[in-house]
Amino acid sequence: MVLKHQTAIVTGGSRGIGKAIALHLSTQGFNIVLSFKKNEKAAAQVVSDIQKSGGTAEMIRADLSLADSATAITRTTIERFGRIDVLINNAGVSSNKSLIADTADLEWNEIIDVNLHGVFRMMKAVVPHMRQQKKGNIVNLSSNITKRLAPTFGPYAISKAALETMTQIVAKEEAANGIRVNAVAPGPIKTDMLEKLLKEMGAERAKSFVDSMPMKRMGTADEIANMVAMLTSDVASFVTGQIIYVNGGGPGT
Amino acid sequence: MKDENRVAVVTGGSRGIGKAIAIKLAKENCDVLITYQKDKVSADATVDTLKSLGREALSLQIEMSNPTAGATICSRALKEFGKIDILINNAGIGSPKRFIVDSEETDWYRTIDTNLNGIFRTIKAIVPHMRSRKTGNIVNISSNVTRRLAPNFGPYAVSKAGLEALTQVLAKEEAGNGIRVNAIAPGFIDTDLLQTAFEEVGAEKAEALLHSIPLKRLGMPSEIADMVAVLTSNVSSYVTGQIIYVNGGGPEG
Question: Which residues pair with A136 in a beta bridge?
């Protein structure tokens, strides 16, 4: 059991923003436990990248829509590293483009299940350890969508709005236990997920969306990881319950 | 992430939060011009500290409600340092503890003039220079009072709410010119100003206010300065138009 280093859990850490966060926190000296849903190869690559640069990382397959995933991730982390200092709730799913009233129940349930219940269960599983340590740091990944509130992204926007509320309440509830809780809300960030979304939008609409961002560009995954790392550090020692938008001045239209 | 040889202007930089910001920016390789209203002894001491960190520094006595303050600050900084990379609009005044409708007109005008119009004029003076260099970074110091909206702080809260709107609009307008604009809204920070305010409200009320902060402590000026350093660095390259609350989680009501 390694006790030397602090330990961070990054859900959905195999690709995109989660991968950038895992790599960044590893350079800060954290042991990393990353969860992935499907892409084992990508997850293994992140673990190997971390190990090559002298860090320590574990991966665990977990579908966060399932009720026992959170306890499995937490148990694995405690067994391997003995403590949990940082929890990054990054794993999330976006919705298919449909109006709220036309959204299939199954899809609605899946989005709320992963993006909201999944994070709730992660916090329930991890916070007791942090309370015992009298120290902990949680960052939830929300989305710029909570400012845009654009049509056809309803379930996704609603799950993220609820996540932000949860962030603000848990921050107050756990402040006395030395636990800080914040959220980062990214705008359009260059990832596989976004490329796919922009393709669905069509070239013209995608261009007009990016052009509607004041900075007229997409962000990079590193620009999100920078902010997450800052929030988990002592630089942010008086910051809790905040939603930080990293969105190029957005929200864009 | 230290950029080489930047120039920063910090208004109200002789004491408290402004002083902490000036010192932090000097450590981040900035030459610094601080302004002060009255306290020459403190301003001189701050300049000495900045110089002892190996940076160029000077102080300028100026009243932010003076219509020519912005232009004077700009021309002095350019004359001494040749450029301005960073503008921190920190100078501000509180308003006497009265209901809005019972406030003296002179107090109302003075608060709005210093906290809002003064910053408008400083921005108007300095942004053309930043535009010409296609780079610039502005951080406005707002206040947690924009969330509390407590009675008896009306003029102050109104001036800061106006400042936050200014921050958000300006960020969008100048993003195309490479200028990022953000605000920090501090909660209760341990400064002379706050100690005076706590003495005015009495020990019991002060204790209750302290207790209403989820982190159950005052913030330190350095915790605001750290966030200013983050916002003016490339860590925040995709962050503009944001209001960052550094308030220990509240109070919000």
Answer: A179
